[in-house]
Amino acid sequence: MNLQTETLSRKGKHVVCMASDFFYPNTGGVEEHIYNLSLCLIKRGHKVIVITHCYGERVGVRYLTRGLKVYYLPIRVFYSQCALPTMICNIAIVRYILIRESISIVHGHSAFSVLAHEVSIIGKLMGLKTVFTDHSLFGFADMSAVLTNKYLQMCLCECDHCICVSHTGKENTVLRAKVKAHKVSVIPNAVDAYSFTPDPSQRDPNYVTIVIVSRLVYRKGVDLIAAVIADMCPRYPNIRFIIGGDGPKMWLLQEVRERKGFQHCVTLLGSLKHSEVRDVLVKGDIFLNTSLTEAYCMAIVEAASCGLKVVSTKVGGIPEVLPDDMIYLAEPNVCSIINSLEVAIMDIKDGHFVCPYQCNTNVRTMYSWMDVTRRTEIVYDKILLNKNKPLGLQLKSYLSCGVWPFLLVISLMYLLLQLVERVYKRKHIDIARDLKL
Hints:
By secondary structure, the protein is an alpha/beta fold. The protein has helices spanning 3-10, 29-43, 91-100, 114-125, 143-155, 167-177, 222-235, 250-260, 274-281, 298-305, 334-350, 356-366, 369-383, 391-399, 405-423, and strands at residues 15-19, 47-53, 60-63, 69-73, 77-79, 82-83, 105-109, 129-134, 161-164, 184-186, 208-213, 239-244, 266-270, 286-289, 309-313, 327-330.
């Protein structure tokens, strides 16, 4: 740890590197979490940078709001916005960034992110502290889940602390990654309630509008959405569906609309920018979420902040997110979802609903990015007290995962770090100046 980092640490300030394959211009819950957490940490006096892979022609260093510095590394995407898990090809450039920016804590995000795990392992071999935030739930039965869980277990062997966004997520992570429970904290996501404000004047009083904003993938229950539309539209002529988002399951919704002749009551908006989501939400009376698995659903909180009644499947950590008077929970099947929608529609017709502006106030009270930031700071302060382990003890920890060849990978990464140190010494790397805004 160099002089600049030691000075910041003495002042109670941290130098943090957020690492993930998922960041802007890509949109989603992980991207929004990293962005908002980084801005709030900067606002509280910490230094934060982000490492992610390139997006199209967006390669190199970019500066975002409040001087947030983002390194878009020249790494090819392998599958579903994730880099190829080589473990060794990016050692030199990651080491250079971590030294140049005087990083003391590496904070990885998302179990799907290969880059987050690679940067965390490299940081740990360099003697830095590591934190990992898990945003998802996984099963245990299918082959993809087994492989992902084992990979996550290997990568988290030496992680100083883990953060989950719900208590259900914590239980899931402890079981599948075999992380000790005392090393896992629960810190939920948050929503900027000042950006997601109600506007009842945008609603059409002649119809009950159901809004869906989601990635159109299997995990989000698009098959359930298609079945619900096919059942309800013929029976309720005053219902309108507005669907925002894109994905591999878009064809299914298009097929249902065209075959059934629902062009007048089903609107498909396609991909939306995050800045456009609020303008879509305020047009609706009900927000529908049909996720099959979810650690924490930010979309339903954004919808509640805009004053919509929320109907959601009762899966994962969703029951923890909103109080009973702001959400209708349903089992992940068509009949249960339709019953919950019908109850919500009757409540709207009878005037039994919470004032939209009161909903916004409630969300503002329950969820705040500054509160999330303060709780994350406690984790950062705690892990700085941990002692760094020598390579031998680190290898012993990795051995506990039961995958012996992974020790060879970690050993090779360590040897390559030593080789890079000899070729391009730490003392020859210029320390980046902090951008003051």
